[in-house]
Amino acid sequence: MIVPTYNERDNVEELVRRVNVACSASGIDVEMVIVDDNSPDGTGQLADDLGKKYDIKVIHRAGKLGLSTAVLEGFDAAKGEILVVMDADLSHPPEKIPAMIAKLVDENADMVIGSRYIKGGMVENWPFHRRVISKCATLLAKGLTKVKDPMSGFFAIKREVIDGVELNPIGYKIALEILVKGRIKKVDEVPITFADRKAGKSKLGTSVTLKYVDHCIKLYEHKKPWLARYIKFAFVGGIGTVINLAILWAGVELFMLYYLTAEAIAFVVADTNNFIWNRWWTFRSKGKIRIQYPQFLLVSLDGLMLNLILLYLLVESVFPAVGVGQDKASVYLLLAQVIVIFLVSTFNFFANSLWTFSKEMTFKPKV
Ligand SMILES: Nc1nc2c(ncn2[C@@H]2O[C@H](COP(=O)(O)OP(=O)(O)OP(=O)(O)O)[C@@H](O)[C@H]2O)c(=O)[nH]1
Ligand SMILES: [Mg+2]
Fold first, then answer.
1. Which class would CATH give 2-223?
2. Were both Cys, which of 123, 204, 310, 315 would link to 340 (CB 3.0–4.6 Å)?
3. Where are the domains of the chain?
């Protein structure tokens, strides 16, 4: 049992007791590994004291080094062939451990999640905003795993699942990392009632949310590099689109430019923005800018031609044919450009992936 702790003095004793009661009732031999980050409230000392009565190994780390690294250190220190991870704040019911282990042993699962979001599972007393955040976070991971509650901090694995697997501790959600990278053939879930922490403070903050999004993006890149980069490219394109539309609008409305001229200027400015973001973020490229920027611009020039032709066709023939967009400064002009941006971005994505950033994008699977 790996339990990371930071300022959990009011919870840890009850946790240890309940874990031991639950396990001994089911004949499970349990070693607890408490990984404490020098909690100012003395959790580490209390854990040492509890070690006199229970089978506990306490790892004292110098300071708050993060939840995921704590869990990974716990994995290294634990002796067992089955590893269970749970929070110390009594949110996770220790009484469910035997059912989770039974699925590993009797039903040959490789990983079992204590799940809030399958039938029989629930969350107690969460305010509306936390439910929404949790649901959104779960939604973001949908493409990574079929598990209903990959955000759970309560799970059990066989050690062989992570043996020799390089786990990146950037994320707060180590279960998700294991689900994506671990050697898992069969994964199962056991319903739990997630109790809101009664004592101590949450360690969640905005930076955790941002790190989570970053973690998810990296996992998608690991699992589906093309899709992940297409989405990032589209996101960058979204920002570029706003810039593009703003300049197009200003050109037509404020500077009285011909709409195609305004769009040409808008396109170049937005495109340079896109290059910077795509090189640095989408493709994480370290290639030579003096080669890549001209390549990117060249791709975009083709894109620009396509853009102008398609915009012209939409504005001059398609829209009039369906009876809209006679006024060139109208919202229909912008609508036409939005459609064109989608088509041209897709063309640009493939051209840049296969040429400008071809070193970063190969069809070979990552090893
Ligand atoms: N060792 C260590 N443990 C940590 C660290 N951050 C959090 N923890 C522990 O990890 C577990 C989960 O943290 P919580 O603050 O409960 O996070 P949460 O469950 O998402 O948030 P709440 O629902 O508000 O409790 C708890 O047992 C914490 O004590 C850390 O930096 N180091
Ligand atoms: Mg908690």
1. alpha beta
2. 310
3. 2-223, 225-356
